[in-house]
Amino acid sequence: MKTVETSRALRLATTAMAVAAVVPPAIGAAQRVGMSQEQSQRSTRAFVQCMVANRKQLSEQYLGATEPADFAKWRDRLWDNVRCNLPGFPGTGSGFRSFMMPIDVERGLVAEQLILTGRVTPPTEPAQPATPAPYQPRWAAVTGRAPAVDEMADCVAANDPGGVVALLRSDADSDAEKVAFAALGEKFGQCLVSGATLKANRLSMRAALAEALYQRAASPAFNSTAGIQ
Length: 229
Prior knowledge:
Elements: E1 4-6, H1 15-19, H2 37-54, H3 56-64, H4 68-79, H5 103-116, H6 147-159, H7 161-168, H8 175-191, E2 196-198, H9 202-218
Antiparallel strand pairs: 1-2
Helix pairs in contact: 2-5, 3-4, 3-5, 5-9, 6-7, 6-8, 6-9, 7-8, 7-9
C-alpha cells in the first residue's frame, strides 16, 4: 500500500500528508463502463454503503477477524454474490459490475459505513492514560497495511477521536476533507513511529483512520491507548 522508510525526518509527515493529492488505486471495474475516476470512487462507496446496510453482522465479523485464515473466511462470505442497485451510475449490458479494491481501502470503507450508520458509537474523548509506542494493533496482521500505518492510525484515533469523526463525515476528496486532514496534521507527526517517515495518500489514510476508530468503538477493552510519543 505504501512504504515506511527509516529516516532522520521522523515526524515531518504532517502537513505534507494532510494536503497531498489523492492518488487512488484502481478501485472499480466501473472504469470499463465509461465512468470517470470520480464516478468510479462514488459508485464504489455507494456499493459498500448498500452492502454494509444489508450485511451489518457479516461486516462486523469481517472486521473482527484478527487471523488471516479467519479473515479470509469472513471476507468471502461478506462479498459473496452482493446485489445492490446503483441508480445514476452507468452499468454493463448484463447489469452486473465487479468492484476491485485493495484490502486496506476495502476494510476502511466498511468500517466507515459502520460508524456513520451508528452501528458503533465512537469515543468522544481522548483515551487516558496514554500507552507509549511501539504498539501493534491486534488487527494489523490482516489489514494489508505497513505496521507503522496501523500503529499511527490507532494513536491518532485514541488521541483525537473527534477529529477522525469529522474526517469521516466529510465527502471524500472534498475541501471539507482537506480541512479535516489538516486539523489532524499535528497528531500524524506526533504519532508516527520514531525513525520512520510515511508515504500515503488521503484515500489510504482515511481508510486506516476509519478502521482504527471503528476497532476502538467495537471492542475498546482489547485496544491499547497507544499514546503520542
